[in-house]
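Question (not urgent): is this output format expected?
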Amino acid sequence: MAESTIEGKQIRNENYQEHVFTRTTYDCCDFVNCDFSKSNFSLLTFNECTFTECNLSMADLKSAVFNDVKFESCKLLGLNFNSCNSFLLTLYFSNCSLNLSSFYGLKLKKTKFESCELREVDFTAADLKQASFFNCDLEKAIFVDSVIEQCDFRGAKNIQLDPERNKLKGAQMSIDQLPGLVQKFGLKIS
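Got this back:
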């Protein structure tokens, strides 16, 4: 099957819901207000692309390539990012809803999650060293055997981290986030 390449294009207001894409590489493209929900991305490569106000909820990301890709104000519910091609995986998220998604076992050093909803997101065994969770909602997010050293959690809410099950050295947190670190010990902080 021949592969096509699309460069420098802006794609706006398209409905690709439940679409199965052919093998395509997108270089330096912008996707604005597109619906990719339940689509199959398994033959797609994205290099230096931006998704703005798009819906990718429940899309199949198996083997998809995301190299230096930004998501801004997107709906990204229930995505298994851990099924992506992890080589060159570089992602940035701003003001996105990623609830019920999984980053299990991924190397996501310096990834920025800023002002995002990350409820019930699975970060088990992920390497998130120097990642930013600034102003995110982490309600019921799962951090087990995760590397979260030097992460920025300032402004984040609903954090629950087990310091015995994660590498936390140098993580930045606010004093009001302390209860989420000691909850498992049954301590009462006042």
